[in-house]
Amino acid sequence: MPEYGAYELNVAGRPILALKVAASVAGSYGAITSHITGTSVVTAGATFPLEHYAVQVTIVNAGTVGTAGITYTYSLDGGTTVSAVQALGTATTLAIPNSGVSFNLGAGTLLAGDNWSVFTERPLLNNADITSATTVLNNTRLPWEGVLFDSVYASGTVGLVDTWLAGREHNGQFNFALLNTRYLLEPTPTQETAATYAAAMISLTQNDSSERVCVGADGGHVASQITGLFVKRPTSLALAGQAMSLTPNIGIDPAYVGNGPVAGYQIDSGSSPNDWDEGVYQSLDAQRLVTLRSFAPGGPQGVYITNANVIIPNGSQILWLQLLRVVNKACTVAWQTLNTQLSKGVRTVLNQTMNTLNIDERDAQSIEGIVNPVLRKTLKGQVTGALFLLNRDDDLTVEGAPVNAQVQIQGLFYIKGFNVAVSLVKAISVPGGGI
């Protein structure tokens, strides 16, 4: 929580609401890769890792486990940051401070140069934990626009979050949520190829849909603002940082290349495994997942959001997070403004054709005249146009009957490609075409 919060505060420069929930899925160890010529056997310890670490341990001075003399160094970020030489003493467990990582050392010897490595996983929320978090978020009166759940992406997760967000809308709370799939298994490509990962993610997410949720795939490596370690962070965190740094310009695409790269993220470093790069693999963006990408040499440098995809159902027009944000803002404006008109008395006129009472045109225009200026002022520059319309044909014969209305949003057009024809000509007639 503090790691994600520190990143967001530095990147977006906006207040955050941090909520800690007990994670039911404990931190875990991957397979240990050992290069040991001594006789000791190294296994994962009984403690639970606190982070997604790339752990490396190297023996400096040889010795017998349980007898003083063995020294070692460790790294939690694949060798980018290496500790000072540590003394094991008489311990038979090697514990790395403040990490939750430990190793059991079997009886025998460890020789100078012996080493082992392992990738660990951070603790994660499951669906029940998410439910606990949503209960707290429903009760708080602190304002928030979007929420990132650092959770296991499982069957039903999107539906759970979507249903919760839909319920909040009945109370005038229009929000979005960010989730993330599991990481690409490391090291690549020997443990999991890009094709295998893509197939697994497509199978996992293909039946999920929501107009309120973005789902990131894999992630990238970032230097921790707290420890300085070069550790993996989810794509959803990168999207959150990019999106919130744009506020109040919510109509700007977080994938807009002109805004520059995602702050701090790397997806192809000599000291870390390759992370998913949509610019190379080109398969998960089409599955409505948010991915990170790089450009070929000569293109923009750094890591970028491919598209801020919402994991929409077929037929939805809320393709990207920026469109979701302007829709949510429009709904918020309409809800807040119309609340001031509750219990307002309006005149009615007889609809002789339908034998019903309809709102008088003068009062309908009056209410529209209250909502539309606020709507347009709030969304100015973030959309092409916005319009609030009150229905004229609602039957108001029964006192207290609801009056229907609609908000129409004409979003900006976002350029996602250029087709350029190149030709040699004898003369350029357009002014300014010369060099």
Any descriptors?
435 residues; alpha+beta; 3 domains; six-stranded antiparallel beta sheet; three-stranded antiparallel beta sheet; 22 strands; 24% helix; elongated
How would you explain this protein's 3D organization?
- The protein has 435 residues and is an alpha+beta fold.
- The protein folds into three domains: 2-24 and 124-305, no CATH class; 28-121, no CATH class; 340-435, no CATH class.
- The protein has eight helices and 22 strands.
- It has helices at 2-12, 127-139, 157-169, 194-205, 235-246, 278-281, 321-339, 361-379; strands at 28-29, 33-35, 42-44, 54-61, 63-64, 71-75, 86-87, 93-96, 101-105, 109-110, 115-121, 146-148, 176-180, 213-216, 219-223, 230-234, 292-293, 304-305, 348-351, 356-359, 383-390, 405-411.
- α4 (194-205) links the parallel β13 (176-180) and β14 (213-216).
- α1 packs parallel to α5 (235-246) and α2 (127-139) packs parallel to α3.
N-to-C terminal Cα separation, in Å?
Answer: 55 Å
- Put simply, the count of helices is 8
Rg, please?
A: 28 Å
Structural class, judged by helices and strands?
alpha+beta
Provide the domain count.
Answer: 3
For the secondary structure, the number of strands is: 22
Give the integer mean of the pLDDT values.
95
Largest sheet: 6 strands, antiparallel
Shape: elongated
Low-confidence stretches: none
User: Order of helices and strands, N to C?
Assistant: HEEEEEEEEEEEHEHEHEEEHHEEHEEHEE
Q: What portion of residues belong to β-strands?
A: 15-25%
The amount of helix comes to 10-25%
Short account of what is shown:
By secondary structure, this protein is an alpha+beta fold.
